[in-house]
Each structure stands twice: as C-alpha cells, then as structure tokens.
Design goal:
The structure is a single chain. By secondary structure, the protein is mainly beta. A hairpin with an 8-residue loop joins strand 11 and strand 12. The protein is 7% helix and 45% strand.
Length: 294
C-alpha cells in the first residue's frame, strides 16, 4: 500500500500526515529521530505505525450495542471473531481544509457509513516550540444524542523505561472482552505507574486513568486532555514498540449504559494530545524516581 503524505515542520519537529489513510501522522521526528514508529512496507498491522484514530475504540463485544432502545451492529473483525475492533475511521480519506508550514487541519464526515450515527471530525496537527500538538473535535450534527468511544493507537518507538498514570484495571476475559469489573493493579502494573521497562515483557491491559501525563523513555512527555482511560500494548515485548493509547470511554463502552460517553444533539467533544520534550527539571525528577526502583 502506498499513499501521499503532507509534511509539517518547525523547531526541529517534522510530521508526515496521510490524509487518505485516516489522517494518521505516519511519521513523527525530532531532529531526525523517530518518536513514533513510522509507516513502512514491512508493517502488516495497520495500527502499529503513527497514531491511528479509532472510532469506536478497541473492542465492541459481538459487534453489537443497544442505544435508545435500538440495537446497532458493527462488523465483527477481530482475531477471536467475537468483537468489532477499532472501527473503520483509521483508514478513511480525510479532506485537507487548511495547510501551513507548521500546521495542518483535516476533516471527515460520516453519514452513517462507518458508524450508525452521523458525525463530523476535525483534526488539527501543529508542530512548534511546544512539540507536536494534536487537536480533535467531534461534532454531532443530529438533534439526538450520540454514543461515543474514541481513542488513539499511539505507537512509540520502544523506550528503555516508561510511566503512565493508571488507576484500576478493567478486567477482561480470555478473548479480551471486559467483564464489567475494575480490579486493583497487580505488582507489574504498579510499576507501569512509577517506571517500568517494556522490552522483554508482555504488556496488554485496559486501565482507568489517574492522570493526563505519561513519560516515554528519557526524553518524551505525552500529555492528553479529555481522555479518561489508557490502553497499553507492546505485542509481547519483542516488537520494538510500545503503544500508549489515550481513550475516551472504557473498552466496550458502547455496551455500558451507565458510563458510555455521549455527545448531545448539536453538541461536540474536544480532545487534545501533546508529544513534547521533557523539561530539564522534570527529566531529573523522573530519572531520580526510575533509578530508585532499579
């Protein structure tokens, strides 16, 4: 597969955005160093490069959910054949609406083709002194409320160490479908909060968020706004990547009547992420914590 990209660059940052592939930032570099896993012909999993946009995010059990007394269906496409996985937004064609040297805005409108509710999503990417800023606005043009599950499959180059602010773990069954319970973090997951290696250990879990800032290796701060869950995944610990995925709504949230995020009629939701270099004082404090746990 090949596609055209649009480059934005400023202050040592450069991103390549693919409008015809879900507006995915398929390459992000700082002074020539890859921050995210870049797209290449060798990648077979479409979610393991850049930061694909997911709607609905992760798994929807059975590819079915009920909203407003009506049942809706989505394609069953995961490896276990028991759920819809990640939706279809990630490979749709977005329209470029504004382009500058350091900024790009793209839009996509769904009339019911990839999700049984109309929505409009506007994405703005900007690079500059702060880092790589991504802003997402999802609009509901209908008079009726819309259920929402949205996430980013952000795929970082595997770091030596990382930390992510996790609260409790969303319990799942053998097919990675949530049971409906949240359980305490186990000993390994406790380390994810304070500093853990990734390489050589399998990481795969769904978590309620306890904060908005993750640290990826010695250099990168990943700050998010508007998300309430984190998903972690590294393909068994030998793939050379670590997915740190902010998500709005829990996994299978479309089937959680009490906690599914909603966009009111004629309303919208705005979310942001920032990939930035650590500040010096911030880096020193993080290193001190990590070294104390080795």
């Amino acid at each position: 597969m090949s596609y055209e990209t649009v480059a934005i660059r400023s202050h040592g940052w450069q991103a390549q955005i693919a409008p015809t592939y879900g507006a995915n930032p398929v390459s992000l570099q700082y002074h020539g160093q890859d921050i995210l896993v870049p797209w290449s012909e060798d990648i077979r999993d479409p979610f393991l490069c850049g930061a694909p946009l997911l709607l609905p995010a992760n798994r929807t059990a059975g590819g079915k959910f009920v909203f407003g007394g009506k049942e809706y269906t989505l394609p069953v496409n995961d490896g276990f054949r028991c759920a819809n996985l990640h939706g279809d937004l990630y490979h749709q064609t977005f329209r470029v609406t504004e382009r500058q040297e350091d900024q790009l805005t793209l839009c996509y409108e769904n009339a019911g083709d990839i999700f049984p509710f109309p929505f409009r999503i506007r994405v703005t990417y900007q690079v500059g002194q702060r880092g790589f800023l991504s802003a997402y606005t999802i609009e509901n043009p209908s008079e009726d409320p819309m259920p929402l599950s949205f996430g980013l499959h952000t795929t970082f180059r595997e770091p030596d160490w990382f930390s992510v602010p996790l609260d409790s773990c969303q319990e799942k069954d053998s097919r990675h479908i949530p049971t409906g319970r949240y359980i305490p973090l186990n000993a390994q997951e406790q380390l994810y909060r304070t500093g853990s290696k990734s390489c050589g250990m399998a990481i795969s879990g769904f978590y309620r968020s306890a904060g908005n800032t993750a640290y990826i290796g010695k250099d990168i701060r990943y700050q998010v706004t508007g998300f309430d869950h984190w998903i972690l995944y590294n393909g068994g610990g030998s793939g050379g990547y670590l997915c740190v995925e902010p998500q709005l709504g829990s996994v299978n949230s479309l089937n959680d009547r009490n906690h599914c995020p909603l966009i009111p009629g004629k309303g919208s939701v705005h979310l942001e992420t920032l990939i930035a270099r650590k500040r010096l004082a911030e880096h020193r404090e993080w290193c001190r914590k990590i070294q104390g746990r080795r």
